[in-house]
Every structure is written in C-alpha cells, then in structure tokens.
Amino acid sequence: MKKFYLTLAILGFILPLSQFFQWLLVNGLDLVLLFNSIVEDQLSMFAWLDVIISAIVLIAFILYEGKKLDMKKLYIPIVATLSVGVSFGLPLFLWLREIHLNKKT
Predict the structure, then answer these.
(1) Residue 6 — φ and ψ, nearest 5°?
(2) Radius of gyration of the chain (CA)
(3) DSSP H helical ranges for 1-105
(4) 103 vs 98: CA distance, rounded Å
(5) Percent of the chain residues topping a pLDDT of 90
(6) Rounded to an integer, what distance in angstroms lies between the CA atom of residue 88 and that of residue 42?
(7) What is the pLDDT of residues 52-77, one digit of tens each?
(8) Which pLDDT band holds residue 37 (cuts at 50, 70, 90)?
(9) How many domains would you assign to the chain?
(10) What does the alpha-carbon distance between residue 6 and residue 74 come to, in Å, rounded to a whole number?
C-alpha cells in the first residue's frame, strides 16, 4: 500500500497544480478573477464547498488518527492539504501512516 499511496500523493500534487499553473500563465495572479471564477456559478460553488468540507474532515482525521498512533510531523500532510488540496494531503497522510505502522511492527 505504501507505493500506491505515494503514487497517488505524487499525482495529487502534480495534476491539480498543473491546471492551476496553466491558469496562472494565462491570467496572472489576478485574485479578483480567481475569486470570481470560484463563485461564478452554482456548480463551481458545489465543487468548492465539497473540497472545503473534505479538507476540514481530512485535517480532523489527520489530527485524531495521528495523535492516536503517536505520529510525528502531522503538520506535513496538513500543509499539503491546505496548499494543494485533499488529493495531495490524504494519500500523503496515508503513506506516512503506513511508514509509521511498519516501523512499529
């Protein structure tokens, strides 16, 4: 499972950021346009609210599960989630958890 989680973490980092960087190349760091694109229509809001709720749940899971297992450096998958998204933070945390669990056995 470690290789699977690591592969998904890499994809979860590269794929979303590749789209965001393409948008930045076209539009620059236009924060007003970025915000307007996010709230542009109900479908965009649906997707963003889904992502925000998922990120909150993931951060709670990271903190709960990580403390239960006495894992260190829980800030790494939290920062990954907040900076890239759930697609990076979740598989990264699961990969780190697998490493931690394998050390204990």
Answers:
(1) -65, -40
(2) 16
(3) 2-27, 31-38, 42-68, 75-83, 86-104
(4) 9
(5) 84
(6) 25
(7) 999 999 999 999 999 999 999 999 99
(8) confident
(9) 1
(10) 16
Q: Which two tokens stand for residue 5?
A: 């989680």
pLDDT tens, residue by residue, 18-30:
999 999 999 999 9
Q: Which residues are within 8 A (CB) of 63 and not within 5 positions of it... i.e. 6 or more apart?
A: 74, 78
Torsion of CA 88, 93, 99, 102, to 10 degrees: -140
**Measured CA angle at 45 (ends 59, 82), to 5 deg:** 25
Tell me the C-alpha to C-alpha distance, in Å, between residue 61 and each of 45, 49, 55, 65. Answer: 24, 18, 10, 6
Domain assignment of residue 58, given as a range: 2-104
**Two tokens at 84?**
């890239």
Lowest-confidence region among 45-49, 79-83, 96-100: 45-49
pLDDT at 59: 98
